[in-house]
Design goal:
about 190 residues; alpha+beta; NADH Oxidase; four-stranded antiparallel beta sheet; binds flavin mononucleotide
Length: about 190
């Protein structure tokens, strides 16, 4: 695939085929994601793979219920904009995906968000070249239940930066419209 085609094909996918992903393929994609640039080559990213649809769904329920609690505690938060969808019983924040990768890392690494976001970008592109669809789902990061945190093996001193769902797409949509680049100044 040409790189420009890859950029078009990498879309946020929210509708997946009923097909599992071989674990070896997920490992390959994660390996590719680690080629991302990162501060001082510290590579602080750590990965949690949930390659079972019902476990992904359990995490979706946990995160969604915490989002709703947060909204009740803080009705003026930005979450208010998403209240209708969050209150929709059939809304699964992970869109019934067969696989989820949490990109996490130690809380005390200052560049963690940037490093993990770059790894996430690479991961999404690497998945696309292998015919997979992905979506970064910020709504899926609110995991608080201690038993569930233990189950996914998130160390106490780590935090989730990027929840990325993966699966074989039902279809690849056209890219949502982008604005013209806002170039503030050209000096030449
Ligand atoms: C940091 C971040 C958080 C996101 N969170 C969500 C989310 O919670 N749910 C969702 O459906 N999409 C989420 N997305 C996907 C965006 O909606 C999507 O990237 C955007 O609409 C552009 O579409 P494209 O990815 O196909 O180019 C997120 C994307 C990013 C980068």
């Amino acid at each position: 695939m040409e790189f420009s085609e890859l950029l078009i094909k990498r879309r946020s996918i929210r509708n997946f085929q009923d097909r599992e992903i071989p674990l070896s393929l997920i490992r390959e994609i994660i390996r590719d994601s680690c080629l991302a640039p990162n501060a001082a080559n510290r590579q602080p990213w750590r990965f949690i793979i949930v390659n079972k649809r019902d476990r992904v769904e359990k995490l979706a329920r946990e995160s969604k219920s915490n989002l709703l609690k947060d909204l009740e505690n803080n009705p003026t938060s930005l979450l208010k904009n998403y209240e209708t969808i969050l209150r929709n019983e059939s809304y699964n924040v992970f869109y019934n995906a067969p696989c989820l990768v949490y990109i996490t890392g130690p809380k005390d690494v200052r560049s963690l968000d940037v490093d993990c976001a770059l790894a996430a970008s690479y991961l999404m592109l690497a998945a696309t070249t292998r015919g997979l669809g992905t979506c970064w789902v910020a709504f899926g990061s609110r995991i608080k239940n201690p038993d569930i945190l233990k189950e996914i093996g998130l160390p106490a001193d780590h935090r989730i930066v990027a929840p990325i769902i993966l699966g074989y797409p039902e279809e690849i949509p056209e890219p949502p419209k982008r604005n013209e680049p806002q170039i503030l100044k050209i000096i030449q």
